Amino acid sequence: MPLVYFLRLVGKKRTQRVYGPDLMRAMTALSARRGYRQFYYGGDVGLAEKLKETLVRTAPGLQVVGTFSPPFRALTPEEDRAIVDMINAARPDIVWVGLSTPKQERWMAAHREQIEAPVMVGVGAAFDFLAGTKRQAPLWMQRHGLEWLFRLCSEPKRLWRRYAYIVPGFSCLAAGELLQHAMRSRKSTGAMPSREAGKSKVGMRKIRVKDRSLVLGVDRNPLPHPKPHVVQEPASRSATAWAAISRIIFGTHVLALADQAVVSGTSLLSTVLVGRFTQPSQLGIYAIGLSVLGFVLAVQDALILMPYTIQRHRPSRSPAQHAGLALLHNAWLSVAAIVVLAIAAGVMIGFWAGKDLTWLVCTLVLTVPFALQREFNRTYAFAHLNVANALILDAGVAAVQLPLLAWLGWTDRMSAVSACIALGSACALTSIVWFYLARRNFSVPTGRVRQATAESWRLGKWLCAGQMAVTIQSYVSYWVLPLLISLVETGIFAACNSIASLANPLLSAFRNTLTPRSVLAFKEGGVERLRRQATRDALLLVGIMSLFWVVILFSGDTLMSVVYHDHGYDGRGSVVTILALAVLATAAGASASNAMASMERPRAVVFATSAGAVVTAAAVWAFTVEWGLIGAAYGILAGSVAGSVARWAAFLTIAARPGPADHVRAPIVQVLQQLAEPNPAVEWDIRQIGQGFQGRIYGIRTHRDDAVWQGYRDLAVKLYPDEPAAVETARRQFDAQVRLHGSVDGRTVHDWTLRAPLPLHVSEAPPALVMTMAAGTDLNKSLAAHSDQPPEVLAAMARVLVTVLQPHWAAGSAHGDLCLQNILYDPAHRILTLVDADRPVCAGAVLNRSDPAAYDLGVLLCDVATDIRTIDRRVALSKRTFAENALSAFLTMMEAPEREPELIAEIRAFARAELNLLDLRWSPRGLFRLIQRSIAMPRIDRMLATAQANVRMRHRLSVVGGRL
To answer: What string of DSSP letters covers 392-454?
Structure first.
């Protein structure tokens, strides 16, 4: 009912509630009359069967064809497949799903293509209500939207977590939507005509009424009671612009704004409390502690949080594995921070440093790990655009930290150290609760930790350098002022900066969603869409921050005197104004920095931010010596302007450079225009999907998902270098792929299906080969990403591959380039796809009696043996296991076992011939090839010996099994 009330408030006056138990009762009665078959899935053990007995008793003639209560754990793939088969075998018309929310919605969405029943309905607790195992809320509570309260009181232990997330999140979203709806309504003159609509009124817009008709078959009959369809004239430009601004402000960003208001408000109030209940020197020490904490958080953001946000969309790992590996990296960083701070504290004690600073560092040893975990929790929520979760988390931190600080001030226990202890306690409590609730969202695959760490480091090492530059730019004043002036002036500067940072809730609220939005824009629309997105974000931020700066300009002195009562803070309005202008300058470059990070251009981010950091450090030092505190503010402003200019210059330079698709767009368009029936009105989406030895492969589809050519929605184009022999290579591969497609495409062995793309066209100018698209990831990358593949799966894939290729080999044809890169693997649909077939070309291998299978297997062994770059032993073992199983399967299927020594010799000869093709010039690449050749031949011999041993072992087991 709360959702019904909300919809009625936004104008959906006829909205009614569809109650799961009532819907199920009505459909049960209808199904009993019409013979619809029912299946009940969900509930506790035995609940579905009890529900069946109850409903059959109340509706005689009801056909219930099956029930199943799943266990309260994640199902294995085998169990899930068995359940789907059971439901399909029962042939129900309606599948009723009674799981908890949102588990039932996710289950139905995941199985809608597998379940053959025409209807699936999720009814939640209706199973318990209709079976009589749980009480329903009284009717008056249902009508007034209080059923959730009744259920919470009935099952508080099970439901408190659900409503702790749902109620605040729904309230915030509903408030934002209602505010947006109200602002839109102010610009409209009314949607429906009143009884006096025919009368002319001043200022009323004209409306046109159109009759609506119903089309049934070929007859066109008007409805018995046609409803008027109101068409309004377009609104003015100002109304349209205001509607767009209101959608931006009150739509996507409303919760992010509320969250950042909580975070920045808590930070501001903490600084104010420390400043009001202590001396300015203690506020300076507290600011130094926050700068150290900010430095560690900047490293975390660069090495862990930003790579996770950018890379979590990659299909190489599951979402839980991406999150679990990021959590593991966060734990490593916490340990490193503890060690470094502990060493620093020991050094300070040994050199008799200031007592307050020493105790501050000792406190940070305990505070930093929980602050890191709290920030990880926030970023995890923002990366998934679950801003309500972040809002709840940050509100919890504020609810603990601020009362602790108020108590410390009230009892005269306030100091910089005690304030840091309060911050650490708040982060610790909320982080423990959050992690307990979200623990099922994390999974750490032990075999992929090294690979994931390397991926994050490749991106994060440059982002880390950039973040360190940003941190230096932000906190250099807190490190310079105690050296050049005093801790008291440092505290005053921190107070001024806290007033200038009043805009941080607004600025950070937008910045928290800039990275996910930029990543999505670049992923869906490329550089051009990213440029537009970054420009819009920058204009929005600058416009809003300009209003804030104007407010600070006229009220800086007043705010300082109101917030801080000490007379040492008076007369600092000019410092606050300059620092607020620096915040405005920083906001101007934020979107450009996030755009470069979304493009995974960390070096450019580093160089741009380093310019601002260098200018800030130099200007703060020079201006502080010359003009004191106001000089430090001017130094911050100079660095902010330099940093923003450098960010935009770097981003626009990168965006102006043509990407890989831009370089090849013209020749690929020429290739597509050579097809028989090109559609000139269609805009093609061109993206590189692979690279072979002869050329690059590009995927072609339309932006509107229309057919590219002759009904094909996706096509692949292999573009060769513009060389004289390229056309001959394209024709040769066309013929080889045609033969391979005719031999293997569509064949199924043991639930595995083999595919081969169909070549469609050969282009001479430019040289290219057009073919149908192939699904899956090449086996080389797939085994690297999933190194934990069971040996039986690798053996099954190898047997399927050899079994399906046997007729192709028997016809005297070879694949020609059977390497792991040309075998695509789609585990979800159990599909293997063979691509890039070619005619065997192997210089130096002249055999009187050569078998096509021997050539292909020799190429496969050579490909696996020459792989010396794979460091992960599991990945290397998986590749060798696949090659050995393919060879064993071929030797086992031979019709003439006496030919085994001859075929082994041919395979070895072809593998040696492939090795001889390696380039051994006097160059670093030639030296690398020489190392490959020296390592590969012993590996080939070992794989051949292992395959022969496996065949003999199978033969012995089959003989012993026959005797037994």
So the answer is: HHHHHHHHHHHHHHHHHHHTT---HHHHHHHHHHHHHHHHHHHHHHTGGG----GGGHHHHHH
Determine whether 645 is exposed, middle or buried from the number of CB atoms within 10 Å of its CB (0-12, 13-18, 19+).
middle
Query: Of the candidates 419, 94, 112, 186, which has an alpha carbon nearest to the alpha carbon of residue 283?
Result: 419
Structure tokens that stand for 926 in this block = 């030639």
* Listed ranges 6-20, 256-270, 794-808; the one with the highest mean pLDDT: 794-808
Render pLDDT for 785-811 as a digit per residue (tens, 0 to 9): 666 677 778 888 888 888 888 888 888
Q: For residues 187 and 170, what is the distance between their CA atoms, to the nearest angstrom?
A: 26
Q: Which two tokens stand for residue 6?
A: 């909300």
pLDDT digits (tens, 9 = 90+) for 565-589: 666 677 788 888 888 888 888 888 8
Sheet holding 63-68, edge to edge: 63-68, 37-42, 94-98, 119-122
**Residue among 191, 121, 178, 210 nearest 5 (CA):** 178
Q: What's the token pair of residue 32?
A: 């009993």
For residue 517, which of 788, 256, 739 has the smallest C-alpha distance?
Answer: 256
CA distances from 257 to 476, 478, 507, 530, 580 (A): 28, 28, 9, 23, 19
* CB-based contact 915:867 (threshold 8 Å): no
Cα Rg of the chain, angstroms: 34
- The DSSP call for residue 503 is G
Residue 250 has pLDDT above 60, yes or no: no
Spatial separation of the C-alpha atoms in residues 100 and 551, rounded to whole Å:
50
Under a CB-based contact definition with an 8 Å cutoff, are residues 597 and 534 in contact?
no
3-class secondary-structure state, position 834 = strand
Cβ atoms of 744 and 756 within 8 Å: the answer is yes
For residue 146, pLDDT over 70 is answered with no
pTM score: 0.43
